[in-house]
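User: Run a structure prediction on this.
Assistant: Running it now.
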Amino acid sequence: MSATGGNQGVTIGGIIFLLNNLSLHDFDPEDDFDGTVPNLPYRLENIAATHILPLEQILLSRLNASGLIRAIYVNFGPMGYYELNPNTRPITQPAAFEAQLRDLFQAGTTSNPDNDEVIWRMITNLSSIVSTLPANNYELGCLHGSDSHSHGSINIGDYIISASDERTFVFVVGQIDTQIQAYIDDFVKVSDYDLVANHCLSRIISGMETKWNLS
């Protein structure tokens, strides 16, 4: 059922995030992983450092507290696609997040030990995600830096103001590769400058919270 947020009587479709193959922090292709997860192509601490702040930003947002984050998907590149439960408590300690990711990449799923609620689960591929999106979804490729002037992108502030509340917005943050482009409905310009993922998300989240009068 759609929430109404801070707009009385207005049905709100909500938001889905896809963090797509984010550029890894301090990645050194010559720096072999220590082997605690077989066949992992990147160092686990680099993967954790790249994703901990963006996921914390989403999970702690007023959007999520209001029940307007419908789903969170992460494409970890060679490790595949995963879904994170928006109702989970964010892990803010890097070592704890690394341990959670280690369990995830080994088992394909992680659960809350207190109640067995699924925290993360593996998704087969991008098509599997797209097939489960609501009929009213609208997929937005989020551009910044030099990419922001391509694809005829619309300024995100202008887009948010004019967009229908009843749509479910799917914000794709990270790489906009050819596979993703096939599903994009519009491109939005988040900034003329290069942004790390959590700064990009901050602008998106702030704009949507303002649109829906969340304070």
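The CA atoms of residues 139 and 184 lie 5 Å apart.
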